[in-house]
Amino acid sequence: MSYNSTKLRFDGLADNVKGALILMVAAALFSLMVVIIKVLGAHLHVTQILFVRQIIMSMIVAPVVIKGFPGVLKTRQPGLQLIRICLALGAMMFGFTAVIHLPLAEATALGFAKSFFVTIFAVIILKETVGLRRWSAVAVGFLGVLIMLNPGTEAFSVYGIMAVTGAACAGLVMVIIRHMSKTDSPTTILSWQAIGVGIAVFIPAVWFWQWPTPLEWGLLVLMGVMSYLAQMANIYAYKWGEASVLASLDYVRLLYATILGYLVFSTLPGISTWIGAGIIVAASIYTVWREGRKKQSLTRSPAGRGYNQ
């Protein structure tokens, strides 16, 4: 089938179908990215993985940054930019560490707790009004988190706490971006993070540096490229589809993580993970649905993260 005929078929689809198809690709890319991170984490320190990832992604976006330099770095809220860099670093450090040490499905499901933290921080920082039903969804969602963490049992792990901490940092980042996007452009926001996180992890990455094998170099490059492509696919998905529809479909990553975890690492989620993940996903989908009903910028949409053009 030729490119032109494929494009014609795609153009003929409904916008929500286009968005859903692209989102499936984005979810697959994100899932493959975390598989690579988990494989690399068996030998390389998480700061080294993160540093190389930032370098590769910065190289990809460098033409845009250079073209707009130095104006692209001009911000009206430098303090918030620095806070966001610290939180983004925390989200990636904790999240990557959890991915390396936990089963993929468990780390992925705990990461979805970000939606609940967004609700909490949006009330505190943005003064958003949240009704009883959304607060109930948040409470139910955290119940699912507790079921997965298994506190007080042998199954309890500090890496589960790291996954939730990473989700909290990511949720706060989303809320800060909502606020910053009122004055700073998406390119400025992304440029500050790309440069800031790279600088922040430089010294620990050098300290813990282990020289990668040729295969690991290839995986590091592939991880960086996949990270960029996944983010771009995610943005384009929301360009076509309605955020209230697509945000719920993003949870297909849990299915991908379960399948890849079994195929690559021969692990399957335990019963507590299935129950907890089911509760988290259900509560998250309800939270997203309520955001859509209230006509708010959805957490996972480009507008909600400052990526709107």
Write up this protein.
It is a single chain. Mean pLDDT is 82; it is low at 302-309. The chain has 309 residues and is an all-alpha fold. The protein has one domain. It has helices at residues 3-11, 15-40, 46-68, 78-101, 104-111, 114-125, 132-149, 158-180, 186-207, 214-240, 243-249, 252-265, 271-293. It is globular and about 45 Å long.
Question: What are the key terms here?
Answer:
single chain; 13 helices; 76% helix; 0% strand; globular; disordered C terminus
Sheet with most strands? none
Quaternary assembly: single chain
Q: What low-confidence regions span 5 or more consecutive residues with pLDDT below 50?
A: 302-309
Instruction: Give the CA-based shape.
Output: globular
Query: How much beta, percentage-wise?
Result: under 5%
Question: What is the N-to-C succession of helices and strands?
Answer: HHHHHHHHHHHHH
Helix content: over 70%
How many structural domains are formed by the residues? 1
Overall pLDDT score:
82
Rg, Å, rounded: 19 Å
Secondary-structure content class: mainly alpha
User: What's the β-strand tally?
Assistant: 0
